[in-house]
Amino acid sequence: MSGLRVLVPIKRIKPRVNKTNTGVETAGVKHSMNAFDELTVEEAVRMREKKSPQIADILAFSAGPAKAQDVLRTAMAMGADRGIHVQVEESEAQGGIEPLAVAKLLKKVAEEEKSDLVLLGKQSVDDDAGQTGQMLAALLGWPQATQASKIELEEKDGSMWATVTKEVDGGAETVKAKLPMIVTADLRLNEPRYASLPNIMKAKKKPLEKKKLSDYGIELQQRLKTVKVEEPAPRKGGGKVEDVDGMLNKFKELGVI
């Protein structure tokens, strides 16, 4: 079969709670690519480097303000072939684009680009919704594997199959499905590379297509209201115990047992 077409959606994130506890801070904060999305870009590039199966195209996709192009250029510096940016200003999407809208948008992109594999981070580290991959699989009617820590591709009887090891409570689960497929990445999938200066310069010449939501027939609709956002409480320091009995007594004091 011909080479695979891989779609890698990425998000420009801003992981700091604002002073009013109503969302994430957008002003005066350094933005970056979502950590889980770095893993999927890296995984797509590693698939190409293995040369079996052949990867014909790695498309990085993002929706957001004009500055979201920065993370697309980073993805291309890491090895993606091209990018598509759907410009959505913050005034259009107060509070961000909700997961269902993102999934509907990605469905259009995957169909238009004839994608064989969509690699997403399992969640974004600002809103932590963790829903987009699952919703996209449902909309497309494709098989899915979430929280992947290992992905293996193989061709069998003229079809491409993916075997995915995924993290579950208490261990790991291995699933296998025929492409096209949706896979979301967990932190143990790989260690993303740093983009070298020569590749950063090359990325500036790679094609970056600019589009609008209307090009895909998508309209934003706010279905969710954020009531409150809080940062996790600071961790308390640990303590030493002399023996097992001391540990058990400590657990009892804490109400653990």
Automatic annotation (TrEMBL):
<dbReference type="InterPro" id="IPR000049">
    <property type="entry name" value="ET-Flavoprotein_bsu_CS"/>
</dbReference>
<dbReference type="Pfam" id="PF01012">
    <property type="entry name" value="ETF"/>
</dbReference>
<keyword id="KW-0249">Electron transport</keyword>
<dbReference type="GO" id="GO:0009055">
    <property type="term" value="F:electron transfer activity"/>
</dbReference>
<protein>
    <recommendedName>
        <fullName>Electron transfer flavoprotein subunit beta</fullName>
    </recommendedName>
</protein>
<comment type="subunit">
    <text>Heterodimer of an alpha and a beta subunit.</text>
</comment>
<dbReference type="GO" id="GO:0005759">
    <property type="term" value="C:mitochondrial matrix"/>
</dbReference>
<keyword id="KW-0813">Transport</keyword>
<dbReference type="InterPro" id="IPR012255">
    <property type="entry name" value="ETF_b"/>
</dbReference>
<dbReference type="InterPro" id="IPR014729">
    <property type="entry name" value="Rossmann-like_a/b/a_fold"/>
</dbReference>
<comment type="function">
    <text>The electron transfer flavoprotein serves as a specific electron acceptor for several dehydrogenases, including five acyl-CoA dehydrogenases, glutaryl-CoA and sarcosine dehydrogenase. It transfers the electrons to the main mitochondrial respiratory chain via ETF-ubiquinone oxidoreductase (ETF dehydrogenase).</text>
</comment>
<keyword id="KW-0496">Mitochondrion</keyword>
<dbReference type="GO" id="GO:0009063">
    <property type="term" value="P:amino acid catabolic process"/>
</dbReference>
<dbReference type="GO" id="GO:0033539">
    <property type="term" value="P:fatty acid beta-oxidation using acyl-CoA dehydrogenase"/>
</dbReference>
<dbReference type="InterPro" id="IPR014730">
    <property type="entry name" value="ETF_a/b_N"/>
</dbReference>
<comment type="similarity">
    <text>Belongs to the ETF beta-subunit/FixA family.</text>
</comment>
<feature type="domain" description="Electron transfer flavoprotein alpha/beta-subunit N-terminal">
    <location>
        <begin position="21"/>
        <end position="220"/>
    </location>
</feature>
<dbReference type="InterPro" id="IPR033948">
    <property type="entry name" value="ETF_beta_N"/>
</dbReference>
